[in-house]
What we know:
Layout: H1 3-20, H2 26-43, H3 50-75, H4 83-99, H5 104-128, H6 133-152, E1 157-158, H7 162-169, E2 171-172, E3 175-176, H8 177-195, H9 197-207, H10 209-214, H11 219-245, E4 247-248, H12 256-266, H13 278-297, H14 302-324
Antiparallel strand pairs: 1-4, 2-3
Helix pairs in contact: 2-13, 3-8, 3-11, 3-12, 3-13, 4-5, 4-6, 4-11, 5-6, 5-11, 7-11, 8-9, 9-11, 12-13, 12-14, 13-14
Amino acid sequence: xxxxxxxxxxxxxxxxxxxxxxxxxxxxxxxxxxxxxxxxxxxxxxxxxxxxxxxxxxxxxxxxxxxxxxxxxxxxxxxxxxxxxxxxxxxxxxxxxxxxxxxxxxxxxxxxxxxxxxxxxxxxxxxxxxxxxxxxxxxxxxxxxxxxxxxxxxxxxxxxxxxxxxxxxxxxxxxxxxxxxxxxxxxxxxxxxxxxxxxxxxxxxxxxxxxxxxxxxxxxxxxxxxxxxxxxxxxxxxxxxxxxxxxxxxxxxxxxxxxxxxxxxxxxxxxxxxxxxxxxxxxxxxxxxxxxxxxxxxxxxxxxxxxxxxxxxxxxxxxxxxxxx
Length: 325
């Protein structure tokens, strides 16, 4: 007799929690991650093993680092499709520098700067000539990948110092070093966007570019800056991924731009610009990482993983469109 009232009460409680979650949008992502993790642990016990969790966190850290840079671009209403190729090029340049005898810190800095140069080219051409960033970065995607292949004619570069390999997968306080780097960047980018004038101007450009110009914001200069930062973050992710793999290959990070964009969009950023958080981006990368790991553990074919990523981008874009209406 009391089953129906209890059911209604439970439904009401869930509805209230869901409504309150609007005050903290990331809470819904956290809930999805917890539910997804619990279901995966139920289906595949190996998911909760220390080795698997470290592997998942490593994969998440690479995409999240690149996605933080992509967030800045999307906040201004643009997009960068060259992320994956930039990662590969930066990793290859770093690898070639290392085998040529360049010290590890300098080789890594060179790789990150290469990413920044790609970003500068993207931003400068897009703003100087008024070409859509979609078209420009689609072109640099091919150019960067072509250079990466041409540098070694498709050969693999390996034979790095142990310290470089440690940077890619060594553990500090139980966590892989790239995860710590991701967490530091999470804090840094959050402070940058929330508490600096430049961060607020980035949001202003995405919210209303014309109004931002009238308010004195140097839109073109700032647009180039966000592309440079995005390129450097992609470069850093590429360098760390090379250190993790212990080798640089010309086909590294193929399709990574889709994972990065999906992380940003799932994290709540608006593709039209002006809305998004760094925490949301990291949580978005985490959700994608867990689902991809689930597909691997459940022996789902690779092409379904690609299908999932594409479907998620479309679904997130539709949700963003409905939210803005």
